[in-house]
Amino acid sequence: MPDETKRKTTTSTAVKRRYNDKTYTRFYADLRNEDYAEINAFVQQKGWSKAEFIKQAYSLMKEYNK
């Protein structure tokens, strides 16, 4: 007869944190309020996340340095 116990279907916060710690690096920046507001407005208008904004800036940097 099959085991009727239910399997846990959620991932614990600790597991997610361990995965993120080994997969990602955090990027911090202190910006003036007006600079942040301008970037935030641009990001919202484009429909990007802030991570996507940084990826786009990195892409431009790589293109510039060719």
Q: Can you describe what's shown?
A:
The protein has 66 residues and is mainly α. Helices cover 61% and strands 0% of the residues.
Helix-strand layout with pairing:
Layout: H1 13-23, H2 33-46, H3 50-64
Write a brief caption for the model.
This protein has 66 residues and is mainly α.
Q: Which series of helices and strands comes N to C?
A: HHH
Number of E-state strands: 0
Distance between the termini: 65 Å
| Dominant shape | elongated
Describe the sheet with the most strands. none
The rounded Rg comes to: 20 Å
Query: What portion of the residues fall into strands of 2 or more residues?
Result: under 5%
| Protein structure class | mainly alpha
Overall pLDDT metric? 91
Query: What is the helix fraction of residues, given as a range?
Result: 55-70%
Q: Enumerate the spans where pLDDT stays under 50 for 5 or more consecutive residues.
A: none
Distinct helical segment count: 3
